[in-house]
């Protein structure tokens, strides 16, 4: 995928400092970029739907994994964070139903962009709260600044 103004570049400001979570977040950024590219290239609805399905499946797993780690680390706001995950999942499901019913490409492109924005906002606002908690605690779950080198598999066929 060539660089575009729609592409999100992973950088240290997006890191929560936990390798396994950062790797999952990097994968989300990649999926968001794949979705953006499909929309910009006016891909057919089934292509965009497949990308959205994959993104949502990975989000569900990630939310579960993140909640397990937050419990392990005794993050004091983990119940509120889990509630945000539940709210986000419900929003995803609602938007996906609207996407499936939309016949006009402009409408379903907007639905795809809405899901993307929900994920990005969650990463930038909600996940940074536990990052700050872990930093203050000098928590053993945090990395010592190293970044993952694992590459994600391309989502597009």
Order of helices and strands: HHHH
Radius of gyration over C-alpha positions, nearest whole angstrom: 16 Å
What's the quaternary structure here? single chain
What's the overall geometry?
globular
Helical fraction equals 55-70%
| Category by helix and strand content | mainly alpha
Poorly predicted tracts of residues = 144-157
β-strand percent reads: under 5%
Quick structural gist:
This protein is mainly α. The chain contains four helices and no strands.
If you had to describe this structure to a student in words, what would you say it looks like?
The chain has 157 residues and is an all-alpha fold. It has helices spanning 19-40, 45-72, 78-101, 105-137. The protein is globular, with a radius of gyration of 16 Å. The two termini are 12 Å apart.
Name the descriptors.
0% strand; disordered C terminus; 4 helices; 68% helix; globular; mainly alpha
Spell out the blueprint of helices and strands.
Elements: H1 19-40, H2 45-72, H3 78-101, H4 105-137
Helix pairs in contact: 1-2, 1-4, 2-3, 2-4, 3-4
């Amino acid at each position: 995928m060539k660089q575009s103004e729609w592409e999100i570049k992973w950088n240290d400001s997006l890191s929560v400092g936990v390798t396994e979570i950062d790797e999952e977040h990097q994968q989300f950024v990649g999926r968001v970029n794949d979705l953006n590219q499909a929309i910009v290239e006016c891909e057919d609805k089934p292509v965009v739907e497949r990308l959205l399905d994959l993104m949502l499946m990975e989000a569900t797993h990630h939310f579960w994994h993140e909640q397990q780690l937050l419990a392990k680390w005794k993050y004091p706001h983990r119940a509120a964070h889990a509630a945000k995950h539940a709210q986000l999942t419900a929003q995803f499901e609602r938007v996906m139903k609207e996407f499936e019913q939309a016949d006009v490409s402009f409408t379903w492109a907007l639905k795809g962009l809405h899901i993307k924005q929900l994920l990005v906002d969650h990463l930038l606002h909600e996940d940074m709260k536990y990052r700050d908690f872990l930093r203050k605690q000098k928590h053993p779950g945090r990395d010592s600044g190293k970044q993952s080198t694992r590459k994600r598999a391309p989502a597009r066929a």
